[in-house]
Design goal:
By secondary structure, the chain is mainly beta. It has a domain at about 30-65. Helices cover about 0% and strands about 25% of the residues.
Length: about 70
């Protein structure tokens, strides 16, 4: 949230859906959601010295207080 890690949640099984309560500041802010794999992709996608991991992220989710 606003460039800082607010919550880290492990995901057990896929597909997954979960809700994370956040305490938002009173000013406009943004939230990004990032999902990263712990396991490297097959060797065709990287090297043993530099493995590549699956990563997904959202665009900024802008939150404006009323």
């Amino acid at each position: 949230m606003n460039g800082k890690t607010a919550v880290t949640e492990p995901i057990g099984e896929l597909p997954a859906r979960f809700q994370v309560p956040l305490t938002l500041p009173q000013a406009s802010s943004y939230v990004l959601v990032i999902a990263e794999s712990d396991s490297p992709l097959p060797p065709l996608a990287g090297t043993r010295a530099l493995p590549i991991r699956s990563t997904a992220f959202t665009n900024p989710i802008w939150v404006v207080p009323p």
